[in-house]
Amino acid sequence: MKKKIIAAALSALMMVGIAGCSKNDNTAKEDNKVKITVSINPVREFAQAIGGDKVDISMLVPEGTEPHDFEPKAKGLEELTKSDIFAYNGAGMEDWIDKVLEVAESSEKVTVVDTSKNVNLIKENGKTDPHTWLSLKEAKNQSKAILDALVKVDEKNKSYYEANYEKFSKELDTLYNDNEERFKNLKNKNFVTGHEAFGYLCRDFSLQQKSVEDMFGEGEVTPKTLESLASYCKENNIKTIFSESLASPKTSETLANEAGAKVQKIYTLESKEDNLEYLQAMKKNLDEIYESLK
């Protein structure tokens, strides 16, 4: 009920602000850049790769904030209405997206992009895995959605955006090709994480993840669950438990102690970490997973 009241108040506040804006309010952008608002860090990474120096990007979810726990603020929504493009991950990642879309779609100025619209989604037990960007293949699809939006709102720079997309696509392909063969040749395909976030990466390389918490970072962590996973690690000679920065390391550390394993950092990229760009973080992830499976 509290969330519904907050949502209603935000919507009412923003509708007042929007009403004061002219339908044709196309005031000059700073440095003539396309203004993009994104939901979370992976979408920002893709938008920056395609938009280059011709875009100005802001992000709704602050760095270091778990996207599932985020609540939109009035100030951020007000800035959203001044954007040319609003791009979000989709696939259920932003469970607060409806109230944001209500505001964005009330402004005819804003082009709204669901970057997961052409993604081959993973659906299990009635749930959709939202971590689409952790697939190098699906990252291309998400980036293409952003490319299309940029060309729509800034057609004069179409060739620039297309060249950036082609460059980024080739870099994604190179990283994928560099890893496909080496993962294919491994006998062990199983690794363990604290959070079931790597389903798309696993699909890319025919790997299997076991996790303490489900894909939404939920699920009761019981002694029985930890005992079962510890036994699985011992039976499969798993010596590394991967842990993400935005999740509590306590569960992974407890499991590692039970299994006689070490805890290793892995990047979900929901927030920018260690100042690494998307391709750099994905390469580190793949290298760490590969080393743990050798």
Automatic annotation (TrEMBL):
Gene Ontology molecular function terms on file: metal ion binding
UniProt record, GO biological process: cell adhesion; metal ion transport
Entry superkingdom: Bacteria
Keyword Signal: yes
The entry's keywords: Signal, Transport
Pfam families in the cross-refs: ZnuA (PF01297)
Keyword Nucleus assigned: no
Signal sequence interval, chain numbering: 1-19
Family: Belongs to the bacterial solute-binding protein 9 family.
Protein name as annotated: ABC transporter substrate-binding protein
Organism field: Inconstantimicrobium porci
